[in-house]
Give the backbone structure.
Amino acid sequence: MNLFKAFVAAGLAAIGLCPLSANAHPHVWVAARAQILFAPDGKIAAIRHSWTFDEMYSAFAAQGLGKDGKPPTKEELAPLAKTNVESLAEFQYFTLAKTGPKAYEFGEPRDYELEADDKKLVTLRFTLPLKEPVSAKKPFTFMVYDPSYFVDIELEKADPVTLKDAPSGCSLTVLRPDPLVGGDKAKLDESFFTGLAPGANFGVKLATRTIVACP
């Protein structure tokens, strides 16, 4: 089963809906923001994710919840938040963090919650700690994406990534992907008609790269 499909299926199962079939290839959109959290010693300690889901997934999540037409509360959504975070663990939370070729591992997430806004769009927030804090004296790079591109995770245009408690002089660069051309564009167009993933690790071609560097 597609990686993000497993995530969505787990979420739907938690709210009593049928999981997506293994052959289906629906699309899920996520508008994302991230905050890089620094430890007192100036090392990068964690990434705080904020993912707002599209109307369809949000409607599934809010199914049967809320009263008098109001959005569901955080308390009502808490079981689904737990299920979502647990289902993402096997897949490294769709977050890749590196210094050069070295990739880092993450610990268990904390401070996770789901919240629905006035439009009933659901946002998942969670703090993802690195197993070991990382120095940013060499450029620290991270990306958030689904390798199979079952879901489109796109950083928000305004303030997509911020730094919290960073040492003086740290810089932040957000590099958007180039538009697809040629064979890659053809593969993506074909995937919409066939319902199949456009290729293994295709999502990295459309992933935004964030680089943090400190003196």
Remarks:
- The longest strand covers residues 122-134.
- Residues 35 and 162 are 5 Å apart (CA to CA).
